[in-house]
Design goal:
The complex is a heterodimer.
Chain A (H helix, E strand, L loop, with lengths): L1 E9 L5 E10 L4 E5 L6 H8 L7 E6 L2 E2 L8 H5 L2 E5 L10 H10 L5 H14 L15 H13 L5 E5 L7 H16 L3 E5 L3 H7 L2 E6 L2 E6 L13
Parallel strand pairs in A: 3-8, 3-9, 6-7, 7-8
Antiparallel strand pairs in A: 1-2, 1-4, 4-5, 9-10
Chain B lengths: L2 H17 L1 H37 L2 E6 L5 H13 L3 E7 L1 H12 L4 H5 L9 E6 L5 H9 L4 E6 L3 H41 L1 H10 L3 H41 L9 H30 L3
The chains are: A alpha/beta, B alpha+beta.
Subunit structure (chain B): Forms a membrane-associated complex with FtsE.
Membrane topology (chain B): Multi-pass membrane protein
Subcellular location (chain B): Cell inner membrane; Cell membrane
């Protein structure tokens, strides 16, 4: 589903964030993106999200080149992706229901479908009873569940999670990982950038390690991937 | 665009105007003041143009013959003036008629003429109308050159003064309007910037879930346009009210001053002001959106 060929990114201030990265991610896979801060994980995510364009190389998402894609098509690309952040990024003045519905409203989803789909997704993340509460009335783990619900409400093919457990205690983090794994089992591809070694080790999924802008390790634990770029 | 989306855009625009109410009031007032100045200078310029036109079209050249010119000579000059291609009308005023006119004008004081005996001190005269008001000055000096013409007079000075007044009113109006207009654009762009900042989080999320750029931009653009529109509505109503009062006053006390009182005139000015207001608003928000809303 995602193919990166010799992708490099040099920012206008001269920082070389990624160097010659080639990666192939299959539909339905669960991929951890690990590496120290500043190694290039965020750039990797931004490139997938078409927030940045690479300086060189090619990125194909779902058969389409992100390099050649026109700016006006970017919103439609992003509707196929859901994004989850470390700091949740919920709107404090909206209820749980409204926060999730917001993602459907701004892509001009029909009202009927919103009323039907939002409760369904809230049930799935285990917040069916808290639809009318505001974010500040929820625990960190619950807030992250809301943001996951918001990410999946438009049925994306891919979830990009940037340190989703970074602000959570280990117990809550595990619950969030179970939820993500559950979503992954339903067929959604998940790419998760993380620093949490224990989570990565316990989950035994594919791991792409980035250091100094290069892929230094790409280990396959599952059985989805056909091809390897192993380099240790 | 779906109707629901349009409703959403309007709702968001009004919501943020309400949330930044003080900035909104400041922007609306600045737009109102700048448009009021624009409106007033338009009223003045259009009226003085109208005045200049009226006076010019009534402008006559008085051509006085030399007192010793004989009747044949006077007639020859009259024909020559009548054949001139810049002249639309020539009226001959013989000296007897001129004297009668003057007696009538002076009324009781016509006794002065008795002191002169039966001599008529006045020369024969032609009243000449130019076909084009702009030709009055050159035509007058040309006629003055004809032999046996004593002198030529016309209302020169008046028209020039009105036109130069119009010029300065226009220039002054443009300068002041430009300055205050720039302030209005700046204030609106600040208001919109505040809204953008206040909703930065929302905008980020909208971008991430795939809202189109125009979906994100429209509420801000509309907010700016409404601020400009409200400002111009205030300016228009104020101008309308003031001008109709001024017209009534002027027409009852100094009726000979020709002012434009037709509704077409006010409607034109209102349209100009409303369009300018909306434009100022759109310009202000566009500036802010370009600078602060990276979508």
């Amino acid at each position: 589903m995602i193919q990166m060929f010799n992708v490099s990114k040099t920012y206008s201030n001269g920082v070389k964030a990624l160097l010659d990265v080639s990666v192939r991610i299959q539909k339905g896979s669960f991929v951890f993106l690990v590496g120290p801060s500043g190694a290039g994980k965020s750039t990797f995510i931004k490139l997938l999200f078409r927030e940045e364009r690479p300086s060189g190389g090619q990125i194909i998402f779902n058969g389409r080149s992100l390099i050649r894609m026109r700016d006006k098509d970017v919103p439609h690309l992003r509707r196929q992706m859901g994004v989850v952040f470390q700091d949740f990024r919920l709107l404090p003045k909206k209820t749980v229901f409204e926060n999730v519905a917001f993602a459907m409203e701004v892509v001009e989803g029909p009202v009927k479908k919103i009323r039907q789909r939002v409760p369904q997704v809230l049930d799935m993340v285990g917040l069916g009873s808290k639809a009318n509460l505001y974010p500040h009335q929820l625990s960190g783990g619950e807030q992250q569940r809301v943001s996951i619900a918001r990410a999946i409400v438009n049925d994306p093919m891919l979830i990009i999670a940037d340190e989703p457990t970074g602000n959570l205690d280990p117990e809550t983090a595990k619950e969030i990982m179970d939820l993500l794994l559950d979503i992954n089992r339903r067929g959604t591809t998940i790419i998760m950038a993380t620093h949490a070694r224990d989570i990565v080790d316990s989950m035994r999924q594919r791991v792409i390690a980035i250091e100094g802008g290069r892929v230094v390790r790409d280990e396959e634990r599952g059985s989805y991937e056909k091809e390897k770029d192993t380099e240790t | 665009m779906k109707i629901r989306t349009v409703a959403y855009i309007f709702r968001e625009a009004f919501r943020s105007m309400w949330q930044n109410s003080w900035m909104s009031i400041a922007s609306v007032s600045t737009v109102a003041v700048s448009l009021l100045i624009l409106g007033l200078s338009l009223v003045l310029v259009m009226n003085s143009n109208h005045l200049a036109d009226t006076i010019e079209s009534e402008l006559e050249i008085a051509v006085f013959m030399q007192t010793d010119a004989d009747a044949r000579e006077v007639q020859r000059v009259g024909e020559r003036i009548g054949n001139h291609d810049k002249v639309s009308e020539v009226i001959f005023v013989p000296k007897e008629e001129g004297l009668a006119n003057m007696r009538r004008t002076l009324g009781d004081q016509s006794d002065y003429f008795r002191a002169l005996g039966n001599e008529n001190p006045l020369p024969d005269m032609y009243r000449v109308k130019a076909s084009n008001p702009n030709d009055v000055a050159p035509l007058a000096s040309e006629l003055e050159g004809i032999s046996s013409v004593e002198k030529v007079r016309y209302g020169h000075g008046v028209v020039e003064q009105i036109l130069s007044l119009t010029y300065w009113v226009r220039m002054g109006g443009i300068a002041v309007m430009g300055l205050i207009g720039a302030a209005a654009v700046f204030l609106i762009s600040t208001t919109i910037r505040l809204t953008v900042f206040a909703r930065q989080k929302e905008i980020t999320i909208m971008k991430y879930v795939g809202a189109t750029n125009w979906f994100i931009r429209w509420p801000f653009l509309l907010e700016g346009m409404f601020l400009g529109f409200f400002g111009s509505v205030i300016a228009v109503s104020f101008l309308f009210f003031t001008y109709t009062n001024v017209i009534t006053y002027v027409q009852s006390y100094i009726p000979f001053v020709p002012l434009r009182s037709d509704t077409d005139f006010l409607v034109t000015i209102s349209q100009i002001l409303l369009a300018t207001g909306v434009f100022i608003g759109a310009l202000g928000s566009t500036i802010s959106l370009r600078k602060f809303l990276k979508v």
